[in-house]
């Protein structure tokens, strides 16, 4: 069985809550945050498949530590130059070699403006006559 000190963000486990009929239930929840107030740990949980407005802070007494699922280790995002905290830059845009060799230029984006022919004000009024 896991200990309270082992619970980290991303863990999933059943959490005791009261439903709308005032009955106890143990839905699966994910730990979103952990904080320590006056030596007492509190856990902010999101009940899986429930609306996030039901997320709440709970004490360890409401956690079922026998059924805890620890988060899986994810592959880290590749880093630029292998330095932690930096991501690879965007690839530089290159002109295709075929366009350079032939001397052709790449098309330039064109801005298109749409115009509408609306009736004159008098024509738009039923029974109105144009000047």
UniProtKB/TrEMBL annotation:
Its main location: nucleus. One of its GO terms (biological process) is DNA repair. Its EC number is 2.3.1.48. It catalyses: 2-hydroxyisobutanoyl-CoA + L-lysyl-[protein] = N(6)-(2-hydroxyisobutanoyl)-L-lysyl-[protein] + CoA + H(+); L-lysyl-[histone] + acetyl-CoA = N(6)-acetyl-L-lysyl-[histone] + CoA + H(+); (2E)-butenoyl-CoA + L-lysyl-[protein] = N(6)-(2E)-butenoyl-L-lysyl-[protein] + CoA + H(+). It is found in: Nucleus. One of its GO terms (cellular component) is chromatin. Gene3D superfamilies: 2.30.30.140. Belongs to the MYST (SAS/MOZ) family. This is histone acetyltransferase. It comes from Panthera tigris altaica.
């Amino acid at each position: 069985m896991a200990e309270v000190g082992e619970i980290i963000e991303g863990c999933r486990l059943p959490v005791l809550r009261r439903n709308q009929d005032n009955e106890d239930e143990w839905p699966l929840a994910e730990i979103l945050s952990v904080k320590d107030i006056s030596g007492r740990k509190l856990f902010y949980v999101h009940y899986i498949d429930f609306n996030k407005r039901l997320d709440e802070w709970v004490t360890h007494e409401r956690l079922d530590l026998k059924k805890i699922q620890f988060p899986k280790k994810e592959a880290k995002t590749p880093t630029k130059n292998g330095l932690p905290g930096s991501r690879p830059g965007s690839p530089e845009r290159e002109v295709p070699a075929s366009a350079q060799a032939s001397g052709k230029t790449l098309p330039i984006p064109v801005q298109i403006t749409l115009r509408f022919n609306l009736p004159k004000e008098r024509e738009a009024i039923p029974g109105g006559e144009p000047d």
